[in-house]
Amino acid sequence: xxxxxxxxxxxxxxxxxxxxxxxxxxxxxxxxxxxxxxxxxxxxxxxxxxxxxxxxxxxxxxxxxxxxxxxxxxxxxxxxxxxxxxxxxxxxxxxxxxxxxxxxxxxxxxxxxxxxxxxxxxxxxxxxxxxxxxxxxxxxxxxxxxxxxxxxxxxxxxxxxxxxxxxxxxxxxxxxxxxxxxxxxxxxxxxxxxxxxxxxxxxxxxxxxxxxxxxxxxxxxxxxxxxxxxxxxxxxxxxxxxxxxxxxxxxxxxxxxxxxxxxxxxxxxxxxxxxxxxxxxxxxxxxxxxxxxxxxxxxxxxxxxxxxxxxxxxxxxxxxxxxxxxxxxxxxxxxxxxxxxxxxxxxxxxxx
Length: 352
Fold this sequence. Notes:
The protein is mainly β. The chain has two domains: 50-211, Sandwich (Immunoglobulin-like); 216-351, Immunoglobulin-like, CATH 2.60.40.1090. 10% of the residues lie in helices and 37% in strands. The protein has two helices and 23 strands. It has helices at residues 3-9, 20-46; strands at residues 50-52, 71-72, 83-90, 93-97, 101-108, 118-120, 126-133, 141-143, 146-150, 153-158, 161-168, 175-176, 182-188, 201-203, 210-211, 216-218, 239-251, 256-263, 285-291, 294-295, 311-315, 319-331, 345-351. Strands 3, 6, 7, 8 and 11 form a five-stranded antiparallel beta sheet that branches. Strands 16-17-22-19-20 form a five-stranded antiparallel beta sheet, with no helix packed on it. A four-stranded antiparallel beta sheet has the order 9-5-13-14, with no helix packed on it. A hairpin with a 5-residue loop joins strand 6 and strand 7. The longest helix has 27 residues, at 20-46. The chain starts with a helix and ends with a strand. The relative contact order is 0.15. Residues 1-26 and 33-46 have low confidence and may be disordered.
């Protein structure tokens, strides 16, 4: 009996012999099973929680820089808080999270004292205020720095905006923007376990914007006006001795010059009558300063835009500008007592 006959006739349990071809089939089946297992593992990994931001550039990258215009020429005393320009970009976002997520947005820079969420630049009077989309997506903004808790959700890619405002923070100087704040976003949550998905993303600004403030200089820092001698009988119309004088400034083109007159003897005076200085000996009269035919009311000594009783002297065409005024005696209460009349007022220019 040869070896082949022994394998064939020596078995009575109905199990057929396994030849070399059968062994190869078993090996192929095992490889197929292993591959299916590996494919299943890949599929599970693809469903992991994630936040892809910015989506349009590549979620592992920072945002493209935001860019302001090449130059601005704001007036020196333009109102604090004025937004010179607002720029934004849509980075888009895609997310799939099964847990609550916290978004933390920070700003690298020096805060402007007295202003909310506004940061200094290297040019005096110019700052930056950042914003991002409020919530997961959309066009509504929230100011930053901020921390916001977001619910589990899935969407994308959908709109996600970053924004920067160029803001007036005080008297505007001249210069080129070279030192600017930047903003960083970070998403964290217990279900985001892959560090690649919650790495911070920065938003920066382009340098190079030129700020050329429109400025002026006063050419008449002190003005003495000699009033004529008048008599009580001259006050039949309530005023007398009208005398012209002027204030002078020199400005770059396009500056709106505004003026506040302040009663030096009574800084709280907001009427149109300038009180007499303490060394006056007359009584029953005061002084009145007019622009054209309009009496000027007095206010605090301040260049802030919108100061009490601040008035407009006009817009400059570039170079010297004279502001014509008139001063006169005005009748007040009580009997007129002859004597000397002296008054003192200061003027404060605001360039807007």
